[in-house]
Amino acid sequence: MNINGIKLLSSRAVSKLGDVFYDYGNSTWIASMGGLGQKILGIYQIVELLVSIVLNPFGGALADRFQRRKILLITDAICAIMCFLLSFIGDDKVMVYGLIVANAILAVSNAFSSPAYKSYIPEIVDKADIITYNANLETIVQIISVSSPVLGFLIFNNFGIRITLIVDAITFLISFLFLYAIKVERVQLSKQEKVAIKNILADIADGFTYIKKEKEIMFFLIIAALLNTFLAMFNYLLPFTNSLLKTSGAYATILSISAIGSIIGALIARKIKSSINSMLSMLVFSSLGVIVMGFPSLFELPIWIPYSGSFLFNSLLTMFNIHFFSQVQIRVDEAYMGRVMSTIFTIAIMFMPIGTLFMTIFSFALSNVSFIVIGCAIAILGGLGFSYSKKQF
């Protein structure tokens, strides 16, 4: 991997650390306010979701119209300044409203930075190294996801929300400096430094036309939409695993094992040659892990079996995700990369509530059998996708 790729990877790792600190510190502080905190936390999360759904398409269009590095620099600067300013608010009531407003602004920032980042990778990293880059990124992200809540807890418990916000600001500043240090010799083509709503809307429509025309890209989007619906159902069940598996601490254990599985999966993913068929094979085999998680309480099997299923599922799902985005980054025309990435993110956000809503409405869904049903659904999705890709691509 070249030096610019290392700088971009370092920037994303530090930025991810800041995201985790920010979410942990703010959510914990708001939740500590009791019943009022519960309502505020709901507003806090809904605002973030709505902003993402509405602005993701615009973020993708801007990522294709402007220099992606510049977008990333601006969004990191906004995040750093916002966290720094929030840390000076002394009144707790004002802080609550400040956090809600800041979260909306940061959600706007993320709607622009996420597609810009994913579409910037192919500009910086050689195509031959994209899988390795994505695997390294996923490994780092998973390690941060496991370790940073502990660091966030120590900082928040010992120093409070305001010092946590200052630490957040520092992480975003470091991310900014890594991005600023990236030097690219070639000039991006067709980057128009002009903003007009009419032009942006035309770009979004043009992006949808491109996706519709490209069978492979449309195929990827359908797979992502359906898979995220099933994943929402799976994630809904996890907090109930203590009772479903009749084991105290099962949920915490599954989360830990899942993180380890994701790290192992990311390490293995770089060794596998990337293709649509190998990607879908990973998805099919990952379903076995979900199915196995529903067996123990039905057949009185030992608890290590669902734990093993969780490990298998998350390791293979991580491998699938790495190869999925690598395939997109390799196959999509650079001029449309931002719009394709933002469409993937938007579809993921929009379809996941469908799965959650289904699990919420139907009380019978809260059962070990649901693991088996979800696993079978993922297997069928992967199998049908594999069969279609063999014929069409």
From TrEMBL:
Q: Would you tell me the Gene Ontology cellular component terms? A: plasma membrane
Subcellular localization(s) per the UniProt record: Cell membrane
Which CDD domains does the protein's record reference?
MFS_MefA_like
GO MF terms, alphabetically ordered: nucleotidyltransferase activity; transmembrane transporter activity
Q: What is the topology of this protein in the membrane according to its UniProt annotation? A: Multi-pass membrane protein
For this protein, the record's PROSITE patterns field holds:
MFS (PS50850)
Q: What sequence ranges are listed for the domain Major facilitator superfamily (MFS) profile?
A: 1-393
Keywords attached to this entry: Cell membrane, Membrane, Nucleotidyltransferase, Transferase, Transmembrane, Transmembrane helix, Transport
| Main localization of the protein described in the UniProt heading | membrane
Task: Give the transmembrane ranges.
Answer: 41-59, 71-89, 95-112, 133-155, 161-182, 217-238, 250-268, 280-299, 305-324, 344-365, 371-389
In terms of InterPro entries, this protein maps to: MFS (IPR011701), MFS_dom (IPR020846), MFS_trans_sf (IPR036259)
Q: What is this protein called?
A: FMN adenylyltransferase
Originating species: Streptococcus agalactiae
Q: Tell me the classification of the organism that encodes this protein.
A: Bacteria, Bacillati, Bacillota, Bacilli, Lactobacillales
